[in-house]
Amino acid sequence: MTHDKHGRDLIELGPAELVLARCEAFRQNDFSFIYHSYHDDAPFLQAFADCRDYLDYAGQALQGSFRINDCRIGRMRAVADDEVQVLFFMEIDCEGVIHKTIEMACMKRTAQGWRYHSGAKRPLEDFDSPLEGIDFDEFLDCATLVFF
Description:
Strand content: 25-35%
Helix content: 25-40%
Largest sheet: 4 strands, antiparallel
Structural class: alpha+beta
CATH topology: Nuclear Transport Factor 2, Chain: A
Number of helices: 5
Distance between the termini: 26 Å
Shape: globular
Radius of gyration: 15 Å
Strand order of the largest sheet: 1-2-3-4
């Protein structure tokens, strides 16, 4: 079983809790947790169909290359009975360069609990509103938004 930092089974985490648990897993270089928190239909798994391949990649390319300074949930909305979108703020230090983004995670419910399906992000400077005022419509109002 895959557990978050508090020892909870992945199946016990709600959508916002899963976003925060994934953030903490990145902080702790727990890439196995990250991998197992993906939905089976996630576009990410097209690149990494095998957990070992991802762990090898993460160990070489991700581990130590950035530090998450902050992660805060902004808003959440249900788009279907088994699908929720979560807007959240991230501040990441990437080799001394601070990146502040607003991200949207698309979470889908499975028999094993909520899983991360896909997401999109935009730089915080794209928005005139204060962080608390950014909503889904404003986030999605971008002709070049890419989901990954």
